[in-house]
Please model this.
Amino acid sequence: MRIVNGTREGYCRINLYGIDVKGINDKQVFMRSNKLFSHLLLGLLAYSLIVFLWGAWVRISGSGDGCGEHWPFCQGQLIPDSYILKVWIENFHRISTKLYGFIVIALLISVYRQFPKKSPTRKWMTWVFGLTLVEGLIGAVIVLKGFVADDDSIGRAFLISIHLVNTFLLTSTIIFTWLSQKYKCDIFLMKFFKLSRSYILIGFILCIGATGALAALSTTLFPSVSLFSGLTHDFSKGSHFLLKIRILHPLLAIGFLFLAGYKTQSLIESSQNSIHKYWGRIFQVLLLVTFFIGAITLGLLSPLSLKLIHLFFAHLLWMSFVMFLSTRFIPESSLKK
Model:
């Protein structure tokens, strides 16, 4: 159903926060379409985690150079003629990211066909598309510049940290799109940032994510034989810069644990919205779980499986944080529908 300037003759008239339709059949069709779109957005959010985790597996397993310095195809072919495992690990990631891009484009077209020009759903879905393009561009530069496998350059370190931050921003815009579509509301970023100075927590968690990506890269390139040996290298004068800066990740995580715990508790206690409080509790639980997994990962010298689990919970933590702040501005009556 196409809507131009909020109206389609003979069908329905739509404004930003409500629906006025001619005929029950048209309303039912629109509501079913709206519900399907909501489910597709949640599916995209789940698929995002799969793509991100597989990308991390590509890096951790040393498969980043499996397709050579070819992009977007693998070894210059649509289907590589190879039986080497790392080639298919990398190629599967490329296939999954291409599929991701097609899904985002399809959803963007759907949004532009169904929602009026000034709809917040249009705005946030456009952001999703833009950040997806940024993801693809970062991936292309990493491949074409050879920032894969055993490369330990500053360029690679910079790009993978930006890569991680961009994935956080991408999932947050998917959540904003879902909220705006489901509850007919907008998420105003200035209110979002100013909520009990939440911009401090947002900056904090993005820095933790960026330094976490660097710490994971350092343990992949420079594995330690013991925790004491790793700490010795961290403070050694002649150590690689990745070893020297990886200590920042656990230090920032400890600071964030206490600051976020205090801030979220004060917001929960001052809130009258039970859904907002619910997401605050979810965030607090995930904060403790993620910190605990991180500590175990560090103590066990960063085994591959724990790295992926830690990254998975880091994304869940970020998404719960976005939901916690967002639901502050949505009426509880709407959230309970």
